[in-house]
Amino acid sequence: MRTTRQLLLGAIRPFEDSNVRFWQLLPHVDSIPRSMQSENVAHALAFCELYKSLGNWKACQELLEPAVSQLDRTVEGKADEDSLYVMSQLADALQRDRQWNEAEKLRREILTLRLEMFGQRHPDSISAMSNLAQTLSICGQLDEAEKMEREVLAFRLETSGPRHLDTVSATKSLAATLWRRRQFKEAEQMGREVLALRFEILGKRHPETISAINSLAVILYSRGQLDEAEKLEREVLDLRLTKLKRWGERYLLLGSSFLEDGI
Description:
Blueprint: H1 2-11, H2 20-30, H3 34-37, H4 41-53, H5 57-72, H6 81-96, H7 100-118, H8 123-139, H9 142-160, H10 165-180, H11 184-202, H12 207-222, H13 226-260
């Protein structure tokens, strides 16, 4: 079993275009007991990468909670960078699994520790604040979320400028909160700004650009601008179908090569 685990760990690498390979590995990974998968922090993070790519957030939680406990027993404890990274990964998994109260609690703890370690204006503290604000926004705590997101955006503009991708992401997060607050006019303005910058910096077919098109379409729909919203939604659908078609052709060719090789 340990040999199998080591072989699988060697096969788990970040995927570029598709998680098809991870689906192929899944039955073998699932055959390994969770206690063995999480025997040390590095193994837990590697297996979590696979489960994360497949959307199994419960499995990620089961791997990351013991990892946090292991790191919490080190000399540095929760003030250690590794601990904070694993805690952040666990908060992501909890949020994706819709365990918002637990995610919020953990993100507040991370932000407190970041502020103690680095102060308010350090990039890591700002990232922790941004993560907490997004969680609060999803939970409906919109006043606190908006306040934090405006603070994050002001910092990003000051330190990185308006064209940096971190600044663009901060703008998109604030636009989402404003949309939830039904402040559609300002949300639309920010949504258009995000789309223009992502289109220029990343190109039309980048996933983050497609996400920006979709977000703007949602805002426009909420404002009753249905013609433009429909046009953008059709564009999103076309871009995503094109990408799926490209994946399908790629893995059809891959499967053919396996058959030719007798695999």
